[in-house]
Each structure stands twice: as structure tokens, then as C-alpha cells.
Amino acid sequence: MFPSYWIENVGKRNLAQIKTILAIDYGKSKVGLALGDNLVRIAFAYKTLPNNKNFWEILAKIIAKEEIKKVIIGRPGHNNFKDSAEAGAIKKLGEKIATELKLPVEYQEEMFTTRMARNNLKEKGLKNLERYDDQESARIILESWFASQDF
Is the pTM for the entire model greater than 0.70? Predict the structure, then answer.
């Protein structure tokens, strides 16, 4: 069946480690989520959460359930967390994920992702775009991040 040298060395092999990555498109009322992994580098729209008092608890449960290893958060424009309350909230969310959940957090520019998301959804023939545009924006953010990485 399998050669004995192969069976003996299976446990010693350095197999590629798959890391599930979560992307977040943060908004005042809704937060879009997308998932992907570092090997296939394909992002999938996952879920839209209401940004309410239960948001953090639900997000932490999703991160645990999906065994997330890294979080990518969309950052508006080139402002580097200046000039808006939303940018400050995004930075605080990233810091909370890093300190409380002990996960690495990176930021990816998200300029025009909502517009691109709505166009994508229209092309797919979906109605009620507001229901899906945040998670589609998160998917675009994650794909942009994948494209910018040297794996």
C-alpha cells in the first residue's frame, strides 16, 4: 500500500498551515464579515451583524467558532485613523481584538468598497442590496488584502 518510509515520515512533515482570516467592514449600524484562508486566498461573504450592544459578544463567538487566526479590518481612505469618529471606532475595535482575543490585526484600505459591492450584487441579480452589501464589502476588503500579500 504505502511505503514504510513514507508512513514513518508523515508525522515529521512540515505541512502547510491553513489560517482562517476574518475581514470586517465596520459601519455605524451594520458590520459585514467575510472569511478566507491564506492558502487558496479566496474570500467568501459570511454574515452581516447589527452594530448594537451585542455586537462584541457575537463577534467573539464567531471568531472562536471559525477558529480565526488573523483579522483584517477595512480602514477608510488614507486618513490613518484621523478626521472621523468612525475611523476612531475602527481603531478601537482592532485594539480590542488584539488585546482581548490575542489575534493579529491588520488594516486594509476600503475606499469605494460599498459601491463595488453593490455593483457586484446587482450583476448577480440580487434584490435588497442593503441586506448583503456590508458582507460583500468585507469580501472585497479581504480579496484586496490577499492581493497585497507576499505569501
Answer: yes
What three-state secondary structure class fits 70?
strand
CA distance 120 to 84: 27
Q: Which residue has the cell 482592532?
A: 94
Q: Are 117 and 111 in contact (CB under 8 A)?
A: no
Q: Give CA separation, 19 vs 35, 72, 121, in Å.
A: 10, 13, 27
> Tell me: domain 20-148, CATH 3.40.30.10, correct?
no
How far from 115 is each of 22, 39, 92, 120, 133, CA to CA, in Å?
A: 21, 28, 25, 9, 9
pLDDT, tens digit (0-9, with 9 covering 90-100), for 91-147: 999 999 999 999 999 999 886 666 776 666 567 766 676 767 788 889 989 998 998
Domain boundaries, the chain: 20-148
